[in-house]
Amino acid sequence: MQYKAVIFDMDGTILDTVNDLTTSVNYAMRKCGHRHDYVRADGMRMFGSGVHTALQRALAMEAGETDDARLRMIGTPEMMTVPGIDEAEVARIEEVMRPYYLEHSRDETGPYEGIMDLLQTLLDMGIRTAVVSNKPDPAVKKLAAECFDNLFDAAAGEQAGIRRKPAPDMVNAVLQDFGIAPEEALYIGDTEIDIETAANTGMPCVCVSWGFRPVEFLKSLHPMAIIDKPMELLNLL
Questions:
Q1: Is-contact 130 156, C-beta < 8 A?
Q2: Which tens digits make up the pLDDT trace of 191-219?
Q3: What was the pLDDT predicted at 12?
Q4: Spatial distance between the Cα atoms of 171 and 119, rounded to a whole number of angstroms
Q5: How far from each other are the two terminal CA atoms of the chain, in whole angstroms?
């Protein structure tokens, strides 16, 4: 198969955003009177399904939840709300975090090593590229423009009126704009959400080993491949 497009997740796939995301969680949680000593490893456990779910997980961790499998369930259809956690409080913290993160999303964030070379190579090959993320759409567009020198043909984040990943809606909208069928595109991500998104869209998924989830966990979900360096993707195209 000669792929015509590559769709990338953002956090943990092309951008190392963990420190800024974790700092933003701590800021909002502190402002709202909650635990605010989360570290990088905690941030990697929280994120992957958008800000709201990340804050639900932060509050669950504050309440004593330590099991990774249960934390990953939060935000899925089986656990959209968390017993013992007030959704109004989640929304209150989210209102504090979103503008803070938008202002501070570049403090410590940057592309993973080799990503820029990969994107330039894909451009030279005539392959369309896009980033589709569950982070807020203004932050996605800002980071895509500022961190990647406009190498992406499209960038889309969480926004009203369109279901977030793992629903296929966001990716399908990009593919429709490109005029490319799902089977003609490859999806690149770093979490279970990305594997589910690709499956729901009808695309093969390649996972990266440097992201938010352990490699052994990703292997258990059977993606098409797991790569250790960005340029290894070229061997799959």
A1: yes
A2: 999 999 999 999 999 999 999 999 999 99
A3: 96
A4: 18
A5: 7
Residues in the chain: 237
How far from 228 is each of 1, 46, 90, 113, CA to CA, in Å? 22, 23, 36, 11
- H or E element that contains 132: strand 128-136
Question: Could you count the other beta carbons within 10 Å of the beta carbon of residue 41?
Answer: 9
Q: Which residues of the chain have pLDDT under 70?
A: 1
Tell me what pLDDT residue 25 has: 98
| Residue 15, token pair as written in the block | 């951008």
Q: Is the pTM of this model over 0.70?
A: yes
Alpha helix (H) residue ranges in the chain? 18-31, 40-46, 51-62, 68-73, 87-104, 115-125, 137-147, 169-178, 192-201, 215-219
